Amino acid sequence: MQKIDFDRHFQWGKKIATGSRGPVYRAVCTQAYTTKLGKQLRAGDEVAVKVFLLERMTTTQRAQLQSEFQVLQSVGHIDTCEELLDGFQTTDDLILVKTLCHLAPLAQAILSAGATSSITETIMADYMKDPFATVFALHERSIVHAGISVSDA
Fold first, then answer.
1. Most CB atoms closer than 10 Å: which of 32, 83, 89, 128?
2. Residue 25: which residues within 8 A CB-CB, separation 6 or more?
3. What span, in angstroms and rounded, lies between the C-alpha atoms of 72 and 52?
4. What does the domain layout of the chain look like in residue ranges?
5. What number is the average pLDDT over the span 61-85?
6. Over 60: is that where the pLDDT of 78 sits?
7. 33: part of which helix (H) or strand (E)?
8. How far apart are the first and last CA of the chain?
9. What is the mean pLDDT of residues 20-29?
């Protein structure tokens, strides 16, 4: 696969994180299509795009990347924040398209509530359901997710 295939389906957005093997961006699907993994995406769907810079990786790191890819495929069916949607490869990069986990509304709700207000347990549970389901699914497979941070919002 070439990067041009990615550009045919998505518009790059801002960088939202920097991982140990490359950056993570927001992107927007520009047209409806069915991914190579059989997922239906619509125009306007937001996704997370994890770019692995292959030229910077050792053989061991590439093996770890293959392992991460297999993990993402194995947990994809549970419809959580870590669902793998598609993948593209160039000579320099591997691009994984994943669901975008929206934690920003939670941060906004906390900030707008202010010091005198409180957020109900029901509201908090609604916001945290998907991130916790993802971590739970990974832990069921004896996998620790080491990259969870506030910047993932």
1. 83
2. 12, 13, 14, 15, 16, 48, 49, 51
3. 14
4. 3-147
5. 70
6. no
7. strand 33-34
8. 29
9. 87
Residue 19 tokens read as 């991982």
Q: What pTM, to 2 d.p., does this model score? A: 0.66
More confident residue, 105 or 57: 57
**Do 39 and 85 contact (CB within 8 A), yes or no?**
yes
Is residue 39 within 8 Å of 84, Cβ to Cβ? no
Q: Identify the CA nearest to 24 among candidates 85, 109, 97, 86.
A: 97
Q: Which DSSP helix (H) or strand (E) runs through 62?
A: helix 59-75
Residues recorded for the chain:
153
Angle, CA of 106, 136 and 79, to the nearest 5°: 70
At the second CATH level, the architecture of 3-147 is 2-Layer Sandwich (3.30)
What integer best gives the mean pLDDT of the chain? 77
**Per-residue pLDDT tens over the stretch 94-107:** 888 988 876 655 66
Spatial neighbors of 100 by CB under 8 A, at least 6 apart, are 26, 46, 47, 48
